[in-house]
Amino acid sequence: MDSRISRIRSKLAKVPYQAQRSYSVGAERHQFRVGPRVSPARADDFEAEHHIELPSAYRKFLLELGGSGAGPFYGLLPLEECRLFTMDRQPPDGTPRGFHHVSHPDALQGDLFLAIIEMGCTDLCLIGVTGPLTGRMLTGNADGFWPPNVSSAPDFLSWYERWLNHMRNGKDNRALGLTSPATVASAPWGPRATVRRTTWRHAAKC
User: Could you give the CA distance from residue 19 to residue 9 in angstroms, rounded to a whole number?
Assistant: First the structure.
C-alpha cells in the first residue's frame, strides 16, 4: 500500500474536528466521508468500457480508501458518474480554452481528461488520462469562461493530501476551494455572508 493512503485516511478522520481549519466549498454535502471502495473488477470494467487506464494514484485511492465523497469542492464523483472530455483548441481571439464531452460532435480527437470531482455548473475538475498531462489534476470551464489551470501536484494523491494539509493549516487556496479563517474573520460581511457569496458565485455561472 502507498504510505500516502494511510496518511490521508488519518488526516481525513481528524480534519472535521479541527476548529481553525479552512472552510472547504461543498463540505456540508460530503461531510468529509468517503463512499465504499471500488473493487478491482469494477475499475477494470470502467477502463475496458472507456478504453483507458486510470492513473495509478487515483486508482489506488478508489480501491484502497473510497470511491466517492470527501474531496475538494463538492467532492469525489462515483466512478459511474465520471465523464471523459477533450480540451478545445485555443480560440483565435486568445480567449480561454473550453472542454467538450467526448461524445459531443464538436469534441476534438485529442488527449483525454476524466472529470472526477464535482465543481458545479460548467466548471470542471479533471485528471489527465492520456498525453503529457496523464495523472495530473487540472481545473477548467467547459465554456471557456476562465482558463485551464494545471496543478503542480505530481499526481492525485499528492493533490488530495495538499487539500487536507492546507485545510488543516487554515490556508486560503482558491485552486482547492479553501477559504482560511483569517480571511473570513477579516471580511466586513462576516462568515455567513462569505459562504452565501461563494455559493452565489457558483450559481451565477449556471
Answer: 19
Half-sphere exposure of 188 (CA within 13 A, CB side): 0
- HSE, CB side, 13 Å, CA atoms: give it for residue 119: 21
CA dist 205 and 185 (Å) reads 26
Distances (CA, A) of 139 to 78, 100, 169: 18, 14, 23
Residue 110 in grid coordinates: 485529442
Q: Is 64 within 8 Å of 1 (Cβ atoms)?
A: yes
CA 139 to chain centre: 8
- For cell 488519518, name the residue: 10
Nearest to 68 by CA among 116, 137, 11: 116
| Greatest Cα-to-Cα distance within the chain, rounded to the nearest angstrom | 52
**Predicted TM-score (pTM) of this structure:** 0.89
- pLDDT 10s digits, 25-47: 999 999 999 999 999 999 999 99
